[in-house]
Amino acid sequence: MTEPLLQLSDVHTHIGPYHILHGVDFAVPAGELTMLLGRNGAGKSTTLRTIMGLWQASSGRIHFDGSDITTWSTPDIARAGIAYVPEAMGIFTDLTVRENIVLAARSGPVDKTRLDWILGLFPALKRFWNLPAGNLSGGQKQMLAIARAIAEPRRLLLIDEPTKGLAPVMVRSMIEAFKALKASGETILLVEQNFYAASALGDNVIVMDDGRIVHSGAMSDLVADKDMQQRLLGLSLDAHQ
Amino acid sequence: MSDMAAPSSAPAELPRAKTDWLPLLLIPALGLLALPFVGSPSTWVTLTVAGLAMGMMIFLMASGLTLVFGLMDIINFGHGVFISLGAYATLLVLGPLAGWALSDSIGLNLALLGLCILVAMGVTALAGAVFERVIVRPVYGSHLKQILVTMGGLIVTEQLIHAIWGASPIPIPLPQSLRGAFVLGDIVMERYRVIAVVIGLVVFMGMQLILNRTRIGLLIRAGVENPEMVEALGYRIRRLFVSVFIAGSALAGLGGVMWAFYRQTLTAGMGMEVMVLVFIVIIIGGLGSVGGCFVGSILVALVANYVGFIEPKLALISNILVMALVLVWRPQGLFPVARR
Known about the structure:
Structural class of chain A: alpha/beta
Oligomer: heterodimer
CATH class of chain B: Mainly Alpha
Radius of gyration of chain B: 21 Å
CATH class of the largest domain in chain A: Alpha Beta
Radius of gyration of chain A: 17 Å
Number of helices of chain A: 11
Order of helices and strands of chain B: HHHHHHEEEHHHHEHHH
Strand content of chain B: under 5%
Largest sheet of chain A: 6 strands, mixed
Number of strands of chain A: 10
Strand content of chain A: 25-35%
Largest interface: A-B, 39 and 35 residues
Number of helices of chain B: 13
Distance between the termini of chain A: 28 Å
Shape of chain B: globular
CATH architecture of the largest domain in chain A: 3-Layer(aba) Sandwich
Order of helices and strands of chain A: EEEHEEHEHHHHEHEHEEHHH
Distance between the termini of chain B: 24 Å
Number of strands of chain B: 4
Number of domains of chain B: 1
């Protein structure tokens, strides 16, 4: 494993009276794709939101590239180079596809070469370029959400369940897009419920249950061990294919 | 705003964006519907111009509030105080430059109006910054507290106006060349109302330009829909909130100046008196929609004028009637804004 870009140490998060994360520890190595898996309610989305500062960790530390970002505000965390795609995608439906991407490029116009690369990953977006993003289908909105996250080079992408609710053909094209992103050297922490997609993409895997990390290691090890899949996820890879 | 051309490989035939024209058609439809009831075309034109002018003044007073509500989710019952403060700020200009108001020079008269607007916007922007920091910021997220606290702020500020300028109504002169009317045959159009229409249109177009053609406008539109995501993109939305609140207060101040010269009398409660109308138009327009606020203002004012002429007894309830009909048709207002 390479040097971690992101490190969570004994992170606890409370939402109101509820204790959601119970001492979460894990690392995301630079330049690799780490999958965060777990059942519904395991705390995956809360983990991403805590990293982004949308919910404050009540204790523990979060380090990003050597800086302690635990108490940083969300805009400061984003400016440090972390892009976030929430489960609900967070698309601005009244804005056009173009405006959504313009807004994501904080430092100025999107580089033409980069834009062509992004639209190469998600060609469907070209067709709706000057239309309100509210006109897009669910899959196209997900593409726009990811395109927006990579409108400028970022150090780390946090992506929450990008294949949720998508048709199989759309899931396959999303997997191809993530493979291309991975090949470009992006560091990605990807929350996923679809183990088929996760196994096709992940270098590393972290499994959560009840707000705790119950497993972390190489994805290849989990893919090879059906008993471990059954024990950790309740389903094997075969069931997802 | 950074600009990007369409992708080079974009297909020639793109799906068309659906433009919602129906609410816009309500205005000419309403005018045409009223014509046979009014009878005389010249009276109809006079009523229409007067309605448009009134609509523009309502728009000027309401546009800031709809943005503040849309972006910040703040119910600011104290908005009326900025209308009153803007109106009273004209005294800061009319005191030393009273001669300009009596001059026959249209240049001096318009310069006086312009100065009044600039000073009023400055005063209300400053007051808005203080109001946001002291009164509104502690109650973000709680509508009930917002209503109570901003109402309290309104009462306190009205009393401050009484303490500074006295409790008696203060007459103010309409600059000389803005009095009277343009007469075209049987059609009579008051000069000041025509100027109000021009200023309202300029402000509306300016706001549309800012909202649709600048990065700050994009941020405001995005923030109205999903402020959390705007923060996750790296923008400090609190600063945007404060800026919009200040801009909204300044716009209310501008509306206050126009309203003051229209009434030619200042009272501390003049802002509060129009707040019911202001809330009606922002609800009709769709909370957070500047375009909706513009259309709603014109609709309400035109209906009030036509109904006041055709059946005066119904004029008092005409605004509520328009709101009820619009909400039956479109429960989220004429131009619903996508909300978080």
